[in-house]
Design goal:
- This protein is α+β, with helices and mostly antiparallel strands.
- It is 44% helix and 18% strand.
- The protein has a two-stranded antiparallel sheet. A two-stranded antiparallel sheet has the order 3-4.
């Protein structure tokens, strides 16, 4: 009977170890997911904008991240 009790204790200990390992893994996954945060918001649509040249005041329509030379004075106009 002592042998059966030892096997039962060992099985119970192994089950506890497996449960603890699963809990540690779940915690690590939760921490990882929390660090990832929510996905970034979608980029705003490309909205054209009329920009005035700082050199001569002429207007030019630009898209975000776009820059072009002024048609009149050659100065760079940047979307801002």
């Amino acid at each position: 009977m002592a042998e059966n009790e030892e096997q039962e204790r060992r099985a119970a200990w192994e089950a506890e170890e497996q449960a603890a390992a699963a809990a540690r893994l779940a915690e690590r996954i939760a921490v990882h997911n929390a660090r990832q945060g929510s996905p970034p918001p979608p980029a705003p649509p490309s909205v054209p904008k009329t920009i005035s040249c700082l050199g001569c005041g002429a207007n030019k329509v630009l898209l975000p991240q776009q820059s072009e030379e002024c048609d009149y004075c050659g100065r760079m106009i940047m979307y801002r």
